Amino acid sequence: MTKKVSATGKRVWKTPDGHSPIAILFNSIYPVPKEAIDLIDEQTFPVQVARGKFLVKPGDTEPHLYLVLKGVIRAYIKEDGKEITTWINEENEIVTSIRNLGLTISSPEYLQAIENSSLIAMPYALVEHLYEHFLEANIVGRKILEDNYRGAEERAYICRIASAEKKYQHFIKTRPGLANRISLKYIASYLNMTIETLSRVRSRLAE
Amino acid sequence: MTKKVSATGKRVWKTPDGHSPIAILFNSIYPVPKEAIDLIDEQTFPVQVARGKFLVKPGDTEPHLYLVLKGVIRAYIKEDGKEITTWINEENEIVTSIRNLGLTISSPEYLQAIENSSLIAMPYALVEHLYEHFLEANIVGRKILEDNYRGAEERAYICRIASAEKKYQHFIKTRPGLANRISLKYIASYLNMTIETLSRVRSRLAE
């Protein structure tokens, strides 16, 4: 967690007028009442995760929603000792142990930083409080969910493309930022193919 | 579309007090204002799709959201002439060309009835109208999305399980209703394996 403090004593992760980046994001999606903004400003906080370290592990009890300010977060589930990468997200995306959105059961997902990452954390209890007390928060939530839903559909689809070459081409088309940013082993895991297959596909496409 | 008319002249797909099943469902998720209920009652309509026929095809321009009253709907995308099954849903589930939720681009998905199916259709324009004019509709939408989001995450996950046996076991655990209901070819397509592999897995598990 950052301890950096600005000249005015405010943590520098906030905007010059003292707002949390999550408050700014929510308000840009749909205008949120001032009382809701105040709660977000008070209860969200910055988190730093070094490359390779974990943001969330299975069994973590207090769920949070995170806005990625910098870095890349990968989610995976362990199945027979093997890691199954379920998603990879970059800057300006909202990440969470989303498999259980709206439920209180614990998630089997690991959320790992694959670059040094800065995020803003929002307790999920606050999300639920906002949903309950500010109807507008449901517009924001609904729109973020629509967006993330398309992402999940995309992950379900890319995995089902039979040809490794088509799969990789689809990946570089839909996630151009990641293709040149993250290491091959994560791309291979996300695309559900071996590193050898991925390397072969890449050399063939480079020809 | 059903033409069946009850003694009172109302189409029998409505409840005894004249409501659309979609209005009943929405109102059970979160109380919706009467004016919203009235709009849903007026603008939703029943659809019947025979086994093998299509509810939606790529290029269909007016998007709808559908509540499945009876039957099973499968979504697939054609890739190099091969069908990639993206989801399969049964009774009481909401289906739509959901890949584009919140966007206006056309979907590459085919929605096919794999049993004779009865659905209630709701124009997506009405969904958007409700979101805009009734804040409560956003609570309903947000909750339905949370639910469907978990489904999409599940589809992205099951596809990435390496062992065919584990994959099938996960399927019968999470979708017990479908396992004994739909034909093997659809299960195989959904699980991204050949029918031969699926048959082998099933015989091995039956031993």
From TrEMBL, chains A, B:
Domain Cyclic nucleotide-binding residue range list: 35-83
Q: Provide an example Pfam family for this protein.
A: cNMP_binding
Q: Which SUPFAM superfamilies does this chain map to?
A: cAMP-binding domain-like
What InterPro entries does this protein's entry cite? cNMP-bd_dom, cNMP-bd_dom_sf, RmlC-like_jellyroll
UniProt name for this protein: Crp/Fnr family transcriptional regulator
Task: Give the organism, scientific name.
Answer: Terrimonas ginsenosidimutans
